Structure formats: structure tokens, C-alpha cells
Amino acid sequence: MDDVIDQPLRVQWESFLDDHRSALHDSLDGLTEEEARRRLVPSRTTLLGLVKHAGFVEKVWFDEAFTGRPRSEIGIPDTPGESFALDDGDTIDSVRAAHRAACAASRQAAAALSLDDVVTGNRRGPLPLRWIYLHLLRELAQHCGHADILREQILAARPA
């Protein structure tokens, strides 16, 4: 596809990506550390864990997939499920900072590519940037929905 014709689509996708990235980041606004870590479902899914996982996802798609480096070298867990696990040192500020840094690195990694450029380092095999953008949009939208529900439950549980 011609880059001149493709550019409005790319701008739209990147805008949607940034909207979803911000929504996850902002889901922690005004919460205490305990609230951000509160488990309201049987899985490891917490608001803080969702933002931590979103940073993992950025690194999988814009570091591992772009460079082919192993996850151990990147400093991320081997599986998505592990990326929700919170360490004692994870705080709202530290997880947000790591997420912001991962998003900035993702933007920088993708900047020089066109939507049809193929990256080869993902476990699924070679994929064009447009596929990665669409996959990330789907995943972030799903997690934004999770975050909305968890945040609503947390805020509803506060004393009146």
C-alpha cells in the first residue's frame, strides 16, 4: 500500500493505541496502593497487574518481535500470565513509569517502519506492523474493559 495513502490510517491507529495506553495508565488515578493491588477475581488480574501486563505486551511486540531478543534478555517473564504477578517493590508510580517507558520505546521502534514492513522476531513468525497494531489495539481494548470493571468495583467498595 502506498505510504501516502496509508498515512491517515496509521495516524488513526496510533491515536487509538495511545488512547488505550492512557486509559490503562489512568485507571490507577486516585487509588491507594492497596486498592490498585486488590484482587476481585480468581486470577492474578488487578488494576496494577493490568498496567504491568500492558508494559509486558509492549515489550513483546515492539522489542522481542522487532529484535528477536529472548524475553530473559529483555527482562520480561516468559509467559503472559506471569506478567500480571506483582512484586513487593511494584507501586503505582513504578509500574506507571515502566509502562510509560515501554510505550515510548514502542513508538520509537515503530517510527521508521511502514504498516507493511514485516518484523520477524515474534514466536508466531513474521508479521507486518499493521497486524501488530491491530493485535495490540484488540488486547488493550480488552484490558481497558477489565480495568473499567475492576475500578468500578473498587470505587463502589469505598465507604460513603
CATH topology: Four Helix Bundle (Hemerythrin (Met), subunit A)
Shape: globular
Tell me, rounded to a whole number, the average pLDDT. Answer: 94
- Overall structural class, as computed from helix and strand content, comes to mainly alpha
Largest β-sheet summary: 2 strands, antiparallel
- How large, in whole angstroms, is the Cα Rg? 16 Å
* Proportion of residues in β-strands: under 5%
Terminal Cα separation, in Å? 56 Å
Briefly, what CATH class?
Answer: Mainly Alpha
What does this protein look like?
The protein is mainly α and 160 residues long. It has a single domain (3-156), classed as Four Helix Bundle (Hemerythrin (Met), subunit A). 64% of the residues lie in helices and 2% in strands. The chain contains 6 helices and 2 strands, in the order αααααββα. Strands 1-2 form a two-stranded antiparallel ribbon. Helix 1 (3-26) runs parallel beside helix 6 (129-156).
